[in-house]
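User: Last request for today: this protein with adenosine-5'-diphosphate, please.
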Amino acid sequence: MIRLRTVSKTYGSGPSAVTALRNVDLHVPKGQIHGVIGLSGAGKSTLIRCVNLLERPTQGIVSVDGQELTGLSGTALNQARHRIGMIFQHFNLLTNRTVYRNVALPLELMGMARGEIRERVDPLLKMVGLDDKTDQYPAQLSGGQKQRVAIARALASRPKVLLCDEATSALDPQTTGSILALLRDINRQLGLTILLITHEMEVVKTICHRVSLISDGALVEEADVGDFFTAP
Ligand code: ADP
Ligand code: ADP
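Assistant: Here's the final one, the structure of the complex with adenosine-5'-diphosphate:
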């Protein structure tokens, strides 16, 4: 479902250039939850942002759902991005929009009709447990509730893939547990493929099927989670 082939990314050029990814190969099959773990500065954020081309790789190929994204730009890239949802550490909600209208936003941008938007948004808000908060603003919500809004928004375009960029790093352990449980439900119920980055072992242990270790821009190890955490 997600495929990276010899992906490299260098920021800047000349003496100040920083190479954040080095020849990364990664394959995440449909329905899998794959975690990438590594220290701060290892290249996790660059890696996940290369999957939906928020960052453009300097070299290599990125494909999602059988389509090569690295060859696309403009409208074709925007269309392809509808199949990729993303959530962030700091939620990235729009403060002047209600819960309902945050989730509706991507559908409004796609030009969907109001009635159809409503048919999508209502069940999503129910699924994330916020159907009683539709008219609240983000400032009125807890961190966990904000991330639930962000998850509903990420799912609005019915993506095949969900990218999670340190999605629980700003949350307390209990809230982290409930968000991870929600992500696992979504993976099971919708068959959604999930790629997440984290610096927390516990996150990987809790929901990932498979894990890669990133160090200085390179994937240095990959294993099933059971094997990764079992002493040899
Ligand atoms: P992580 O998410 O693991 O902390 P990042 O992908 O954010 O790692 O960063 C990897 C390397 O790339 C770091 O050395 C970082 O300073 C550098 N870097 C990240 N983003 C940029 C940028 N926009 N411009 C220049 N250097 C960057
Ligand atoms: P604007 O200020 O852009 O006019 P509104 O608050 O009037 O925004 O909302 C725009 C549309 O979004 C509404 O006409 C309605 O279709 C939809 N909408 C907003 N909140 C809800 C909600 N809680 N439930 C259902 N639809 C809503």
